Every structure is written in C-alpha cells, then in structure tokens.
Amino acid sequence: MTTVQLDEETRERLKKFGKKGETYDEILNRMMNYLRELEVEELIDAKWERLQEEKEEYIPLDEV
Q1: Contact criterion met (CB below 8 Å) for 48 and 55
Q2: Where are the domains positioned within the chain?
C-alpha cells in the first residue's frame, strides 16, 4: 500500500466521483479505465479518418 498526498480540495473532488462505499483506489482505477477506453476510441477515430483520406489515392480493383 502506498500513501498519496492530496490537497484537501483535490480529495473533496475525488470523493464526488466515488460511489457509496467505494475506496479511493477503486475510484481512481475506474477513472483510469475510462480514460484508457477514451484513448482507444480516439485512436480508432484518427485511424479511420486517415483511411478515409487515403482511400481517395487508390483505384478500386473493379475499375482496373
């Protein structure tokens, strides 16, 4: 177990993200998991946009 020092204001903000009976560890892990999912979605969206831009550079096989 590790101790993390927080300002009182930060601790109060963190508590507002928690559910009844949830530990700070559980709150932080849930938040980090959510952020990881957002990053994956952003990565997928960026790759999709790049594919859409690149597809204009190619000729479909049925047109060759």
Answers
A1: no
A2: 9-56
Phi-psi category of 25—alpha, beta or left, where left has phi over 0 and alpha has psi -120 to 50?
A: alpha
Q: Greatest CA separation found in the chain?
A: 67
pLDDT tens by residue, 45-62: 888 888 888 877 777 778
Give residue-wise pLDDT tens across range 6-33: 999 999 999 999 999 999 999 999 999 9
Q: Which residues contact 30 (CB under 8 A, 6 or more apart)?
A: 22
Q: How far apart are CA 60 and CA 29, in angstroms?
A: 46
Closest residue by Cα to residue 18 from 10, 7, 30, 6: 30
